[in-house]
Amino acid sequence: MSDHNPKEPNINTLSIDLTELILSSLPIPSLLRASSVCNLWRSLISSPSFTSPSLSSPWFFLFGLHNTSSRNNQSFAFDPLSNSWFLLPSLHDDSSSSSFLGSSGFLFTTTPKFSYTPLLKSSWRLTSSLKYSRVNPLLGVFHDGSSGVHRGFKFIVVGGVRFIGGLVDIEDRLAVEIYDPNHDSWELCPALPADFRSRNSSQSLSSDLLKGKFYVFGIYSGFVSSFDMRNHVWSEVQSLRPPGIIFSFMISCNDMLVLAGMCNAPRGPSFNIWRIDERTMELSEIYLMPQSLLYSLVDDEEDDKFASLKCVGMSNLIYVFNEEYHQKYHACLCEISADNGKCSWRRVPQLPLAVNKFS
């Protein structure tokens, strides 16, 4: 017999709105545990409309591909507020895809079919077919202000590599498509400018959405162009190459556009961050990574030791990590104050040991 007094409040009798309000006040560790309590709580937490102060700081995600079984793939997230890594709920993807991407709270597969899932939800939604299926495209999530079941969010897919009969298709590698979940439809948009044709995948391009524009930047070429999300037109291609730059990434941070990358400076190798004037596209250096942190990301004995460094960012955080040796070398992050613009650098804790099982 239950000890519960029917006159006292019971969480199961609370309205959905009040339940969601309570869940939104939980810290990240409790929020992840709560998502496994029942279907209702998981549905509320994984909803695109769910907001929480705990989720306001951008997470850093790594997706582990198991060497032999896709059912043993695992996803990990780093929460900067608690300075901890978390194992995300299992993702049961039946497409046997090895092409995974993440953006703005979603995970995606792009081939052989396009599908997506919110990060705290374990079921994938298969979309209608892309007009041009591709591997390693650039991908962004944006809101167009429309209503509907999916709260007005849409996906933009840019570039990537397309295969036909096991061979790379050289004709349609610049394709741009926008997906509307409310209608399960893809809209073909003006193609990426031809200047990006030789290197058009996420391996050689970086991208970011800021103030209604989708920016595409050549990590090695320095070419940059922006796609106007409202008018569906590309801007003129320009070149951003600071003196001594080796490679760089374009990201948005604190509502500003920045460039972050490796330089061969007179004082030696350095990792610099520049602010980009969105109107003139001129650069001004604002931050420099401490040398001790930079060399903690690489093997000092290797000749090309900085080549595998990558950089991502959102809100007020910039993450720098070693893509090839993420188990061996800790990532680091730069936190930029919205109040005074000052930055603080720190190392990210070591990945969970379970990651060592993955490729």
Characterize this entry briefly:
This is F-box/kelch-repeat protein. Residues 14-54 form the F-box domain. The chain has 359 residues and is mainly β.
- Name the structural class: mainly beta
Point out poorly predicted stretches. 355-359
The CATH class assignment of the largest domain is Mainly Beta
Beta-strand percentage range: 35-45%
User: Rg to the nearest angstrom?
Assistant: 21 Å
Q: How confident is the prediction overall: mean pLDDT?
A: 80
Number of strands: 26
Provide the domain count: 2
CATH architecture of the largest domain: 6 Propeller
The amount of helix comes to under 10%
Give the oligomer, counting copies of the same chain as homo and different chains as hetero.
single chain
* Helix-strand pattern: HHHEEEEEEEEEEEEEEEEEEEEEEHEEEE
Largest sheet: 5 strands, antiparallel
How would you name the CATH homologous superfamily of the largest domain? Kelch-type beta propeller
> How large is the count of helical segments?
4
**What distance lies between the first and last C-alpha atoms, to the nearest angstrom?**
51 Å
CATH fold descriptor of the largest domain? Neuraminidase
Any idea what the shape is?
globular
